[in-house]
Amino acid sequence: MLDLLASEGELKILHIIRTLNPEGGGPSESVRMFALAHQKLGWNVEVVTLDSPDDGPLKDGYRSAFVCPVHPCGPALGRYGYSSHLEPWLRANRSRFDGVIVNGIWQYHSLAARRAFSGRVPYAVFSHGMLDPYFKRRFPLKHLKKLAYWILAESRNLNQAHVVCVTSPEEYRTVAEGFPFRRFRRLLVPYGSAGPEGDASANRAAFLAAWPHLVDRRFLLFLGRIHPKKGCDLLIDAFARSAQQDIHLVMAGPDEIGWTAELKARAAALGIGDRITWTGMLRGAEKWGAFYAANAFILPSHQENFGIAVADALACGLIPLISDKVNIAPEVDADHAGLVETDTVEGTARLIERFQAMTASEREAMQAAALACYRSRYSLADAPLVIYRALGLIDETGKPAAPTAVPSAAQ
After folding, report:
1. Fewer CB within 10 Å: C terminus or N terminus of the chain?
2. How far is the CA of 321 from the CAs of 89, 228, 240, 326, in angstroms?
3. Residues with pLDDT less than 70, the chain
């Protein structure tokens, strides 16, 4: 028998994610931001994760970043993330929720969500860039492995969802190219950043207190995973080629593949080792303080489904210097809110050179445009409402919709 949506009172939303560890990239931050956005609307949200309750991210304190109930159903096994606890928990608790948002694909939690909710509770899926055609071009052998799993399970997981949420016009156009049986409904969702937390001056002071050698220094900020996809190597090469001698580079982010030592050696060989600060992952006041203290944000990524850090920079009025492989680059460029070039050493060098050539008045104008771009496009104000309407949870006025049966597959 089909479960029915609540006809009155607060909506109850469940997020499902493989891990809340922020070192895994954007999905965990996305869930945190959406949880806050849900709560600002006065509705309840809970999170279920395959993290272990005994160790790992939850024990390390990441749970405190979520001001909502978090249910660990791990530990998960291997890269696929299988856990015998997840699907029973979803089935036992599904009647408590009006709608579900699944974060990420290619892992067990996507399959478990379909088994538990299809035809019973409306659910949406965020692929978080995992269906970008870049991966087919960059890793053709891995694509063949994914193609087999797509035919066996993942296409059904997405086709039976109410919607598959995409976060940029470019992703809407290219999502799942190279995969057959694409019958799912795409939904373009306003996406971005919840914006800075706390006082700007206090955040800036917190960052500079942690890294006092950067006081009164000009620097470019890279904030993201230390990973080949992010173009860290070409950034170092371009910085050595084009950055003025008094400009520093801050590389902030987790190194999940142990690449930092090689990059440091590369920088030393280029004679710029003493001009780069490696902070590791920044959180809270130090993270926002880095944005406020920097002169520009730089991300020469080879593939970026959205780029939450770009939206974070815009929210702080910081000029982003980004590659054309960041999917929101066309909108940033159209708003004159940042500089865009190709994801090459030459393109990244041009980003630095163009920024250095700007006059003070040109930079002030672009900083104002960056903040305006964030407020008009990436503030997350309308994102939950767009998803809720697509799931049939609210009407056009934003009030809970009348009960309706949940279809067994996407229309």
Report:
1. N
2. 44, 18, 16, 11
3. 1-9, 24, 55-66, 397-398, 400, 402-411
Amino acid at 151: I
Task: With residue 112 as reference, give the H or E element that holds it.
Answer: helix 108-117
CA–CA separation, 389 and 10 (whole Å)? 15
Residues 24 and 140 in one domain: yes
pLDDT tens digit sequence for 210-221:
999 999 999 999
Specify the pLDDT at position 2.
33
Model confidence, pTM: 0.80
Say how far apart CA 356 and CA 358 lie, in whole Å.
6
Shared domain check, 286 and 165:
no
Task: Write out the residue range of the structural domain in which residue 150 sits.
Answer: 12-191+380-390
Model pLDDT for residues 335-392, shown as the tens digit of each residue: 999 999 999 999 999 999 999 999 999 999 999 999 999 999 998 777 888 888 999 9
How many angstroms separate the CA atoms of 71 and 75, rounded? 12
DSSP per-residue letters across 247-284:
EEEEEES--SSS-HHHHHHHHHHTT-GGGEEEEE---H
175 and 147 in a common domain: yes
d(CA 399, CA 70): 26
Note the pLDDT of residue 58.
57
Report how far residue 6's alpha carbon sits from residue 212's, in angstroms, rounded to the nearest whole number: 53
**Sheet (strand 296-299) strand order:** 276-280, 247-252, 218-223, 296-299, 320-323, 339-341
Res 133: pLDDT: 83
* Strands lying side by side in the sheet with 186-188: 70-72, 44-49, 12-17, 99-103, 123-126, 163-166, 186-188
Is the distance from CB of 192 to CB of 377 less than 8 angstroms?
A: yes
8 A C-beta contact, residue 45 and residue 38 = yes
Assign residue 361 the CATH number of its domain. Answer: 3.40.50.2000
Is 4 within a domain?
no
